[in-house]
Amino acid sequence: EGVVSFYDMAKFFDKESLLDCLDTLNKKANIDAKSYRMLYKLNANTKISVQTSVGESKSAPIEDSIGQGSFSAALSSSLNIGCAVADKLKDECTASIGQLELIALILQDDISKVCNTVEQARNGSQKIDELLKQKLLSVNYDKSKYLLLGNTKAKNRMRKELKKWPMKMGEEIIENSILEKYLGDIIHEKGCKESITATINERMRKLIPQCEDIIQIANTPLMGGLRNSKIAFNLFESLVIQPLLHNCASWIGITEKHINELQKFQNKFIRRVLHLPHSVTHAILDWDVGMLPMEWRIKERKLNFVRNILQKNDENICKQTLIQEMETGINGLAHECNKVCQEIDIPEIMNNNVMSKRQIKETIKDTVTLKNKAKLLSFKKVADRVSDDPSDNNYLGRMGLTHSRIWIRYRARAVKGVKANHKRSWKNNLECRFCDNKILESQEHLEECGGL
């Protein structure tokens, strides 16, 4: 059981003092005089404007405030708040992963604190409130929430206690929430499974309009005249897949149900672009379109994420977390990645981190190709479409979309009106209706049928 608190800062970049950040850089980061002066010049008298629904507002200079939008400003502000929280909550460990003690988690203006008890969470909220006020910063009290973790009995006990003595920051009461958005992902009080479900559902809901726009673009006459059918799929990769799977490397405990939901979302887009009915088997879509299955997209990102973390120095908190997970036997990200390594027959990444990013990508690509080939061979209707000649299934790159829609129907044996392609509708008589040879009416027969 435990409590996770999330604190939302109000107008963070407009309020954070430039002089305060520079003082922290000087004393904590020990930057040289030249860098100190350069950072001051870059941020002093910054002009800001606000993007509104009716356009951009007039710009105005602000004094003693760190500028937003630059990499140096983000690093400076993160260091400033991080050092302040570390000094304020020094030696106050409220949670741990193995022997790794956790005080608070901070990324720029997003602060969270994991606590084992309600009393620890209450004290932490008060101290963070005092700290931010000392920095002349404020918190959106109505947006700052806390989640209760544990079984039903533990949650009810903590709710009863918090109802009697509410969680406060100063004199303001912090409310309880069932789920909260933090760093792009939705955190649910029921655990990882529900958190992943809520995150996927919310992202798919927001990305449906993007998919509709791409489909409308693909259906324009201009796009149909181009000798390439992959433009819509390339747009889907860049505009939909990236935000949909953002931070998916942290989705620990993802289930088959989650994978299926994501795959249905991708397959639905493919079918709509190519005007294909649901009767067309998934195997021919995977083989001809060549889009990476969602399951392997996530596995690849997890492997490369862990690979990058293991290359960091030993003080990195993410690296320490992975090491503690292996030492304590927690079934988390490190164990999941080792299982993936066994599945694709490469050295376990936690024991032997020797694979490059390109090697991991190529190995997964080869694995997916073999799986797609085996899947296609398992379907009698389209098994003969398997070929080692890449020109047989890379026609999307050299045909216009109109011709590709026809050709994939031919390859999938889904041409409308052919008896063999729709046996259930013609189960009493599958013989060719155009000749007297009493032969099965298939696409191949109709190409040379004498009755046509």
Give a written overview of the molecule.
By secondary structure, the protein is an alpha+beta fold. Helix 2 runs antiparallel to helix 3 (33-43) and helix 7 runs parallel beside helix 10. The chain folds into 3 domains: 2-49 and 62-177, Alpha-Beta Plaits (2-Layer Sandwich), CATH 3.30.70; 191-414, no CATH class; 417-452, no CATH class. The model has no long low-confidence stretch (mean pLDDT 88). 50% of the residues lie in helices and 12% in strands. The radius of gyration is 29 Å and the shape is elongated. Strands 1, 8, 9, 10, 11 and 14 form a 6-stranded mixed β-sheet that branches. Strands 2-5 form a two-stranded antiparallel sheet. It has a two-stranded antiparallel ribbon with strand order 3-4.
- Radius of gyration over alpha carbons? 29 Å
Low-confidence segments: none
Number of domains: 3
The helical percent reads: 40-55%
Residue share in β-strands? 5-15%
Q: Output the number of helix runs.
A: 17
- What structural class should be given to the helix and strand makeup? alpha+beta
Q: Determine the N-to-C terminus distance.
A: 74 Å
Compute the number of strand runs: 16
The major beta sheet can be summarized as:
6 strands, mixed
In one word, what is the shape? elongated
What is the overall pLDDT average?
88
